[in-house]
Amino acid sequence: MPILYLRKLTGKRRSPHANRHLAGYLCFVAGAINAGGFLAVQQYTSHMSGVVSAMADNLALGSFALALDGVGALLSFLGGAACSAVLVNWGRRERLHSEYALPLALEAGLLLCFGLIGGNLGQHQWLFVPATVMLLCFIMGLQNAMITKLSNAEIRTTHLTGMVTDIGIELGKLCYWNAAAPARTPSRTQARPLPRVLANRRKLRLLVVLVTLFFAGGVAGALGFKHLGFSATLPLAALLLALIAVPLTDDLRSRWRTGSLPRLAARMRQRVQAGALRRRR
């Protein structure tokens, strides 16, 4: 990928074109995580409406342990969204080029760790399933909040209910027959003629592409988990790291030139040395 393209894709200067492209990548990743996660723990983790409905069902049936698992999943999604907002706002206060890349960096790190150690945790099923559900819900909340904040709440990437609804609305407007109004005698009290009903074809194309990419990601994630196991998350982490590499590198270079990184490294060394001295005493 060209450097300029990647800088625009996840940098702080946004454009509708960059937002659409980034949403496509993230829809693919979300679909892969959601489908692969289902094969791992038999539960989808990207949409909270199903989680809340399952909580209500389990509570009514007396399955309190499963209801508590749902509470954990809901709080994890909520925590991921809150964490994303904190990272974006902190990056904005620090005037970082990577203010929107920071949540994706955390998401990539979590996927990387999950892919590397997930197979070893499978032996502890009592801990593995709830922890995996909470981790994947946290990741979904993290990603969805980032793209929501980036696009001013115009785009979502982790669930399709809103997108499919918008597709239906645009299709309804596309099929609407704008018949000519019958001729009437004009009068001062007569209302102005209503505007023609027209579909937003660009929005319709974008939504169809995003839903298709989510589906393609789901197929890729399911096949990847089937053949590779937990290592299937490693390519997803690599893709996210590739998307955010340029703005993160820009920040590291600018901080190094201004001396921020050397001062931070010196402070960290001083703290480590002070801690070592205290332990010796």
From TrEMBL:
Top-level lineage group: Bacteria
InterPro entries, per database record: DUF1275
Entry's transmembrane regions: 21-41, 61-88, 100-121, 127-147, 204-223, 229-248
One Pfam family recorded for the sequence: DUF1275
Keywords, ordered alphabetically: Membrane, Transmembrane, Transmembrane helix
Protein known as: DUF1275 domain-containing protein
Organism classification: Bacteria, Pseudomonadati, Pseudomonadota, Betaproteobacteria, Burkholderiales
